[in-house]
Structures are given as C-alpha cells and as structure tokens.
Specification:
heterodimer; A: alpha+beta; TATA-Binding Protein; 9 helices; B: alpha+beta; Trna Endonuclease, Chain: A, domain 1; 2 domains; 13 helices; 40% helix; globular
Amino acid sequence: MPDKHNLLPRFSTREDVFDYLDGHSVKTADGLAQRHLTGGVVKTVMLETVPGSAQMPPLSRVLSLNEMEVDWIDDEVGFVSAPQLGTRPFGIVELMATRHLAVYTLLKSDVAARVLNPLVRTNPWVDRLWLSAPMFERLWERVEATSHPNRYTRLKFDHEAFFEVSDDDPDLGSDVDSDLDEGELDEAPDDRRASSFTLVDRVSTIREKLPVLQDAYRPLESLVQLRIPAAGRGGHDFYFDGRVTNRSDSFYDHRSNVRDVVDLYRRTTEASENALWLESSIEPHVAFRGAALTIRFSERLADQTFERWLDSTFTRHGRFRLSGRVFRTGPTRAQIAAIDRHLWQTLQMEVSATGITALVPAGTCGNTVHRLITNIQRFLDPAVQAWLGSASYDEVVGASFRGAA
Amino acid sequence: MKLPEAKVIAADPVFQLNVILWSLLPSEGGRYRSVLHQHGYFLHSIGRRLQLSGERREALAEVAGHGLPSPDVLADHESDPTMLVVECKASSFGSASSTSQQAMKLLVGGSDVADTIGASSSRPAHVLYATRSGDAALLWATLQELQSSLSTEGLPLARAGTLTIELRDLGAWLGLSHGDPPPAPLGDALSAPVEIVTFEEHDSPLPLYILPWDPGVEQDSRLADLGKAVIAARVLNEATAMIGRASLPESLTLNASVLIDAATFGASASWRSRSEVEKVESLAVSRLMKALRAVRDLEVVSHSNPHGIDLTLKSEEQRSAVIDALEKVDEWEALQGPEQPELDLA
C-alpha cells in the first residue's frame, strides 16, 4: 500500500538510516528500501531540552508525554513514532550534546507541523531553537566567508508591527507557535506595518548591497531565514524557529550543517547563561540568585502600541507565551510577575515604552532569552538591542561564533 | 490605592534597599545604572548575620545588648580588600535610641568580617548607613558619637559613613555624604551623586523590585501592601510553574518556604522576623488551599510543619483546572486578608 505520509522503514544501524535519507538503497528485514528522491527535502526540527534540571525525566519519557515513542538504535539515534500516524516511525531523533536534539522527517510540512507543534506547545521540557537576528547575522558572515562569491543564496527578513493596530483584532491572542507557516506575513492585514522580503542573489551581490538596504530600512534588521549553500548543489534553509529544510542533494551535508548550527547555538546559549550567571554569582554563597536582562527598543513605542502590547501579551494565550500579573507603575510602565509558559519558568519583568528589564532566576534557560529577543524582533521592534547583565547580547553571540571558528 | 508622596518613598527602607541592589547588579542599556558594580563591587549577601568573637560580644553586651547584627547588604570588591556593610534607615536616630545598639554592633563587627564570610585572613568593612539626604548629617553625628564611646572601651572599629538616597529630577540618586575616608573604589564611584534609576514624568518612582517586601521592616502601609501583593503574585506564579512542569501523573508538594524563597531570589532566608515569616507562610498556604479545594476531584492536603500542601495531579484536564484556579487568585488579597483596590496612579 502506498505510504501517503512518507513514513520511514526501520533499520538496525544509524548508517543505514542516514544512507536511506541520503537516497541510497538500503536493505531492510522486509526487502530493499529506497527513497524516490535522493538526498534532499528532508525537514529537520532542532529542539532544546531544559538544561541541568534534576527534575527532567529521560528523553523517551519526555516525548511520551506527547504520546510519542522512541525506539533507540544506539545511544544517540532512534526512530520516533506518533499514534496518529500509526506504528511506523515518522522521523529520526538524534541527540546532540547534552541538551539539544534534531528530528529528521520526510513528512510534508503541514503534517510535520501537526505532529511536532504540540510537542513544543504543551511539553514543559522541550522548546525550539530560536535563532535571533544577531545569530543569523553571524551565520551570514560565515556564509560570506566560506562560500564562492558566485553561489546563490537566500535571505528572508520579516517584521510585522503586530501591536500597532488601533482596531480590534480577533487574532491578537493567538500564540506564536500555532502558525509557523512561511506564508504567515502574506496574510497580515493591511492596516499595520508588515514587511517581508526575500533576497535571492549571489553571495557577492548581497554582501555589497545588504548593509545599504539595512541602513535605509529597519525591518531588514529582522533576518528570519537563511540558506546556507551546500557543498554540492542547493542549500539548507534555516528558519528562526529551529526548522531546517534540506534543499541540497545530500542528507549528509544537511546533517553536518544542522550539527554545526546546533553547536553554535549551544555555545551561544551557554555563553548567554554564563554572562547572566557568572557576573551575578561570583561567590557561591551570594544570597541573591538572579540576574538582569535588558532589552532596549530602537525607538520609543507609541502609547497605543504599548497599551496594546501590554494588554494582549501577558495573558494565558498571549502571543509571546508569557502570562503574568501586572502592576502598573506609570502611564507607559508596569512591573509584571511573569511566567514563561513554554518551559514554566518564572521571571520578573518591568516593561515600558522604551524597553524591558527582566530579573531572571539563576538557572533560567538561555533559550528563554533567545526566544524573547526573536519574538520582539519579529513583532515589536526589528532593531532591538539586548544586554545580559552588562554584556551586550550581540557581542556574546559574536564571541561564541568566533570561538567556534 | 494611591502611592504615598516621593519623600515617603525615599525614606522607605525597602525602596532604599532596592536602589542599593540595582547599584550592585550588573546591567546595561536600560534605566538602571550599576555604578558600584562598574567600580568593581558585587553583591555578597543580603541580611547576613555579622559574626563577633565571644570576647567582643561580651564587651558589647553591656552597652549594645545581646544578639548579632544582620545588615541589609554585604558587598565585596574584585580587588579592594575592604568590604561594604550597608544598612538602610528611614531616618536618623540618636545615640540613646535602641537603633544605636545595632549601629554599635555593626561598627565593631565591621572592623573585621573574616569570620562572617569564612575568610582566612582579616577583612575590614566600611559601614554605610543609607538614608534620605536630609537626615544624613544627623546620622553621621550619631555614628561619630558611637565611634567615640566604643573607642574608649578599647574595641576595634570599622570606618563608617552615610549614603544618601534622593528622589529628584526624575531619578533616584545615590550619594556619599558624610563619613570617614571611604575605600578608594567607593570614593571614585560616588565622587558625586549618581542617578541609579531614571523615571519618566508621571511614573511612580519605584524601581523594578528585586525584593518587594521584608516582613521585619516597618513601612508605610501602602508600600507594604504593594510589596506584599508583588510577593504574593510571585509565590502564586512559582506554584503555577511547579504545576506546569509536573510530569503527570505526579504527587507533589508546594512547600511555602520554598515558594517564598524562589519568589525572593533566595533572599527570604535572611528575613529576620521569623514570626512574621511564619504568618506569611501560613497565609500563603491557606490561600492556595482555598483555590485548590475548588478543583474537582483533586486530592489535596495541607500541613503546617513545614507549611505546605501535598497534591496529586492525575490528568492534563486536572492540571489545567489547577492552573486556572491559581491564576484566578487575587494577589492583593492573598497575603493580606481583605481585598485591596488596584494601584491608582492619578
């Protein structure tokens, strides 16, 4: 019977699995399995689990909270299945370092989203990788440095001034994870600023023109997608929310690029956590277990925009998935006892028309910081700046990427 | 509820403590200026008890009474050997007042804080009283009197001085006003008053509370009510977050002291008034219980030693109902009985 979902056959070694995804003929217990397409169109979702938590159950148990089942091939690679798609695996899960994982799948995008979005939305131990604009900028610099100037690449920028509308908008409460489609911005109403640009050109041309364009138009600071050229044809499309699409002819090249980005992300996350925690906890007996995160908007929010953002954000179904108890301390200022509903961690925030200060408890996942910055960049201010304690977020990201060079 | 006028806020020890903490906490790019951190200081501890040798305690007992002092803040420096002992005060006090007994202990205890921090060799501290600017001169005169009388007893003394906290020009300013020669980095940091927090017109002059409330500190009732509401909001959030993270089915305990510890970034361990802390823990548990009892089929039991609640979450529906119930609890009512009106900024 034809498999309408592109589910996977089972193999006994990781090499067989990867060969199959690469388009080779691989022998299974039932005969010979071969993909119709070679190499490409594997979708990957990069995920992060809560670091260093004694409470976190083993990964198999974590995924079972969403009724997913993992059948491990070895210590790092396993088949993952979901009941709504039957018993055959829909993907391969690969552990990378201690807290990151990638799920490779051949499912169509809409089916993959239906299976994997609830995992992130409802599981307190799992979050996406959130690639902020400063991270994409560093990745782009790497592409510039390592690709032939005549190779084509693709960059996408988007920013939707989501809170600027003055009329009632029934969609205001929907959270950011529920609608992660590429066409999201195309459907934005016409009565607020929404900018979505895709640049496809040679590396050398983009290198020359991009800084000029960014100087002229701030939404072009909000880089949300980048194609990293492959060693052969095509490339790998990395999205801001940790999704990756393989548009090359090699799964091995795809996996290698995913591993590179996960490694860079890990370094950045650890450096962010160090910047937050080391400065504030030089001695182990310090009584205060928290640190300050500062986010500054590139320009002051209009009063109405601030009101709209405040009213719609810190609610149970708010777009940033932060709920909170709000204490107004000024016309455009409030203190908020907030909860990050992705990972169920608390944080204390002060929000104003000029920025955000957050006191984050020691041990808060660096991913919370990346996610907050990425969401603000996309929906509130495309050129937002941030500091972790007294360290500039841009510099922390830059140093992490340079350290990995 | 309308917040009190600026001069009452400036004299509030919890407000003062938060200004001092923001001067020590690394931050850039926003409205807080961590001037002491920029000059090498960092927060060592909040409310830590200063250790005094038996000999000095005996010598002090007659003039300063029993017990050891717990200053609001102890700050260390990345290279300078002199630590800072900071105590916040609403106003000046005379040498005959009961507060002067605590000051004497700080002056003697601050002469060497090695035992307090577990250091192997001597560590002097500079004792600083933070108060509103109009009271600093009088307070320094009192400290000088105390230094003089302790000196005649042959006791070792820390150098001392006063910090001023002022609300003016849309900012909270920290200054070094009177006192003995300060340690060099402190003198450099505060050679002139520094604006630690900036405000905008019509803002309440409150920083983001690091510590919103201390049950042992006397405060204007409106500021105390606000602080309690903020703590209650944080405690409710900590409980909600625990419920959100639970792997179902799971039996878990909401321990009041753990929730309050998390809500205060670990500083509640230093709260001095244990009877008040007990009261707060008991109130938190009773309010949480009231909310949880309303959830259908939830197994929930409270206990008082330690104050806490045991509950068993069986399903996602139940988790959702518990979170819903906790999110409906009014933070203004949670730790202070009758419901308070919202903050009025007018």
